[in-house]
Q: What sequence folds into this?
């Protein structure tokens, strides 16, 4: 049995990157508790469009928790109240009838607001471009078992590679640090033999790119780990620190 | 080297290393202070022996350098962190990652800085004509001073409860087997140090003051 609830939304509205934003209240009436959070926003937007108003802009794509496109800070929590879930996987049954729900964009200097709840996360792309890859020759794929990889290593690398780059770690970090994201990418290569040829160069370049984007510094508070929809663990940050120390010492 | 010290991770490594060395200092300082409990002669004898040692001045400069690195780099890091989020959230709610200690590092740290100034002024540059023991015991007859000490030591415990284990994480010392033990050791260490240092003014106030 699905119930219907009425909510008041307190939403950050901002016309474009250079304009000043403001808080606007919206009534979200007759919301089915089976709706996802984004479907609820769709419903609110449909009514706004019918009234001739500008709909609330928010990022979304796959709506099944794997693309990393949705964002939002809901009632002070990145990706809403659930653990190990993205905003698109949040359902309205998590909200009480009559409640006021605050919806904010991810906040960080490196993630400027483009419009309403949409932020520019291309800083992550630039960090990736600095070293988040391996160099291989194109052509036919090599035989899969040419380089043997222990199962535990493959699994640990896969855990790190589960990062979808949504940026919730930055949003939840008291310092707006991107260390969890960068560490996941560093881990995923550092654990595999294919990542080793560019090991030092990669961590030095990605650290530099990360700092250049204006992210804050890690203070090991673990809020990133707590909000990560893919449950990326803090031990990757320790590995990033280790890799960076090692590369800095070995650097010629 | 300069690039390392100016990098985000490098700065945290400096703070962590200085912090861990300061933890070692806390152990020796507390061990020495426990001579107070042995008696006036034992404590004064210990204090004199320390002051006569020509290496003391070297150690003091080293200690001052550790404090300066730890404090100045931390403040710079904090300043950068503030700049990294120019527009804050209307609402921010933890999902359970951070701790009381981790959230209050800057406040406990600043309180300890104030404490450090007061502490050095009273005991390093105080009048110890009748021996350091008298100076210490006399200072701890003021209940506000004792309360300030206990408060500062509580802040120290809070600071260490996050700082100790966080330093190891920053240095990349992490392992599924021993990280839980580092965290436990951090809790134990912070309680021991804070409790030990807070005990002395309380002991002096209640035991030696004739209250």
A:
């Amino acid at each position: 049995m699905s119930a219907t609830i009425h909510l008041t939304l307190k939403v950050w509205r901002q016309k474009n990157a250079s304009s000043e934003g403001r808080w606007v209240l919206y009534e979200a009436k007759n919301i089915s508790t089976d709706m996802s959070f984004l479907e609820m926003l769709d419903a609110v937007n449909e009514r706004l469009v019918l009234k001739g108003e500008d709909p609330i802009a928010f990022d979304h794509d796959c709506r099944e928790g794997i693309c990393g496109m949705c964002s939002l800070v809901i009632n002070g929590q990145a990706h809403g109240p659930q653990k190990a879930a993205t905003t698109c996987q949040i359902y309205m049954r998590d909200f009480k009838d009559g409640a006021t729900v605050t919806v904010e964009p991810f906040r960080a200097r490196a993630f400027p607001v483009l419009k309403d709840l949409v932020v520019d996360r291309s800083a992550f792309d630039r960090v990736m471009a600095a070293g988040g890859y391996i160099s291989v020759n194109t052509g036919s794929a090599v035989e899969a078992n040419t380089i043997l990889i222990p199962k535990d290593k493959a699994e640990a690398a896969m855990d790190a590679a589960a990062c979808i780059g949504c940026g919730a770690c930055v949003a939840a970090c008291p310092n707006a640090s991107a260390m969890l994201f960068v560490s996941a990418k560093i881990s995923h290569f550092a654990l595999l033999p294919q990542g080793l040829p560019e090991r030092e160069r990669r961590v030095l370049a990605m650290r530099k790119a990360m700092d250049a984007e204006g992210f804050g510094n890690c203070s090991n508070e673990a809020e990133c780990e707590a909000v990560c929809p893919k449950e990326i663990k803090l031990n990757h940050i320790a590995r990033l620190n280790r890799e960076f120390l090692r590369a800095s010492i070995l650097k010629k | 080297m300069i690039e390392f010290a100016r990098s985000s991770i490098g700065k945290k490594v400096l703070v962590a290393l200085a912090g861990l060395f300061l933890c070692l200092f806390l152990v020796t300082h507390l061990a020495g202070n426990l001579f107070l409990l042995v008696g006036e002669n034992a404590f004064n004898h210990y204090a004199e022996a320390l002051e006569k040692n020509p290496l003391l001045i070297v150690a003091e400069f080293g200690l001052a350098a550790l404090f300066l690195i730890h404090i100045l780099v931390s403040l710079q890091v904090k300043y950068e962190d503030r700049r990294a989020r120019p527009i804050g959230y209307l609402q921010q709610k933890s999902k359970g990652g951070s701790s009381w200690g981790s959230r209050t590092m800057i406040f406990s740290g600043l309180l300890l800085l104030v404490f450090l100034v007061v502490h050095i002024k009273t005991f390093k540059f105080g009048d110890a004509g009748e021996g350091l023991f008298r100076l210490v015991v006399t200072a701890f007859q003021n209940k506000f001073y004792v309360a300030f000490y206990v408060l500062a030591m509580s802040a120290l415990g809070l600071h260490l409860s996050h700082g100790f284990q966080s330093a190891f994480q920053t240095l990349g010392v992490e392992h599924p087997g021993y990280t839980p033990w580092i965290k436990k050791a951090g809790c134990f260490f912070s309680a021991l140090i804070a409790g030990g240092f807070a005990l002395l003014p309380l002991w002096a106030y209640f035991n030696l003051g004739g209250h």
